[in-house]
């Protein structure tokens, strides 16, 4: 008879209904004590078949569907789609429309990063930041409400421009928001970045090497945290980003702390862009000359933008009709999620939340 | 000094004891209910929220409504749970939380206080029993989250009981008594004043260990909602859940009372009546716990353990050494 106690691995289902998976993400974790032996992400609980639905829709009709992908940063999704269509049609966009787009996109990036800060700290057990960030986010959401009539799913961009011009006083409100937000970022930096417990939870945790980041095709903050300088706004400039002065934020260690800090720093950079765009916005039309029925010439088109979570690409195969033959979204959340298993194996259960949170996924985008 | 313990057990005395116990129980229940209300309000204000304000004026009846709601809820026992253990676990966790309150000297008149000569020991010993209830609840639920939560809780509370006990040792050395009444009396006459001054290291260790004992932020791992859903009471509903919840808040009150008694001079204080002094100091202590909760993120389980064994216990031991050395010299 064996004298040792029999022990076995435990399989734990994290999700699909779990407070820290930010939606309906399921992770089948095999645990040896508190150590993760294997992790098997199961996605698709929020799958709505957006890409298939798009095949039966005209290009303008697809825009509201993109709102529902990454619902935290819907403006950027809007833009990703219209940008590809505009690229296919080789359209000229009025300057005011471009500026408005930059304004709402960068504001949306700030809102998205703010939400990351709040939920990430909530995952780590600090409940106050979550409630704090919603106040600043509320101001951005109010601005969006005024310009597009919606707080979350904006449906604001159109092929050739934007749907609505800014209401009177809107640009001033954006200008006032910039210094206000700068102060708040300073406050968050002070409150969170130096907290000893927080540092212990995130420093050196979930390290991604440059090789891994490239092999797993990471993009966005997950890639930049490893020190690779890749930001589509800089590397493959689109829209009028080349007119603005802002820095690409990178870090060296590739751990969760770096990812947190880049989020904070990118809010500052986004504020710089917003400030400049709000200062030099010209008058003029907000919608260019676009045919009533948009038909893209037969062919394949791909453009990508720097979304809040990484490279957000739209790939259109057109057979010359008014609807795409095939439309594919390159969803950064989905791609970034692939490295999760590699990061989790060998970690403790408590690190799972810190690592998953820092990857910063949105399930609407993962499952499309 | 009048004490029930020294009285013969006659029918009248027994009645007096029962009435005294019931009064303390009632007062504590009300205090605990308003502790919950106080926490929600304080944290609400810290987070720029309003806090409960719907039930009764300023939401004062919110906790009562919550308890009442829990009473009316269905009592669900999971299908594969160990039924008996599942049912009695909350009671095992709950009962000691009230029992420890017997030795706390709330006022200068010790009518309702059991003036036990081993009061401190009694407190520490009884509060350990609650851990059994928590582990049992986690194990009997037949839920993996509950199990991990229960085991974490056991490991944490056992680890932190040691620094808690050691931090109190300095006070005992100064006062030369385990009786809480005597400890309070000593602080009134001690040349350094309240023991928070000569025992500042002990006090800091005590507060940290107390927060960990209470399973509160930043040591709220057993119920780390982001990892373990709700921890050991994931499967509990209705009044069994309320038992766990209540015992947690009774312990908040109890540990604040103990800290007040040991380090802040208990009911001692000029001008105001003694019970009011006690209430003020205890509220301050409780407020501090809530303040920490609104401020801190959660520490990780392995860091929590190494913190207890590698930092708190050596510091507490050093404090004992220092106290001994200083009381020899001075």
If you average the pLDDT of chain A, what whole number results? Answer: 90
User: What does the main sheet of chain A amount to?
Assistant: 3 strands, antiparallel
Strand order of the largest sheet of chain A: 1-2-3
Biggest interface, chains and residues, is:
A-B, 28 and 28 residues
The CATH homologous superfamily of chain A is called Cytochrome-c3 Hydrogenase, chain B
Major pleated sheet of chain B: none
Low-confidence stretches of chain B: none
CATH class of chain A: Mainly Alpha
Cα Rg of chain A: 21 Å
Q: Please, how many helices of chain B?
A: 11
Stated plainly, the CATH topology of chain A is called Cytochrome-c3 Hydrogenase, chain B
Distance between the termini of chain B: 31 Å
Tally of separate domains of chain A: 1
Description:
The complex is a heterodimer of chains A (368) and B (330). With 368 residues, chain A is of the alpha+beta class. Chain A has a single domain (49-367), classed as Cytochrome-c3 Hydrogenase, chain B (Orthogonal Bundle). Helices cover 48% and strands 12% of the residues of chain A. A three-stranded antiparallel β-sheet of chain A has the order 1-2-3. In chain A, strands 6-7-8 form a three-stranded antiparallel β-sheet. The longest helix of chain A has 29 residues, at 95-123. The model of chain A has no long low-confidence stretch (mean pLDDT 90). Chain B has 330 residues and is mainly alpha-helical. Chain B is 68% helix and 0% strand. Chain B has eleven helices and no strands. The model of chain B has no long low-confidence stretch (mean pLDDT 85). The chains are: A alpha+beta (368), B mainly alpha (330). Chain A binds chain B through residues 10, 12, 18-20, 34, 121-128, 131-132, 135, 195, 197-198, 200-201, 348-353, and chain B through 43, 46-49, 144-145, 148, 217-218, 220-221, 224-227, 229, 293-303.
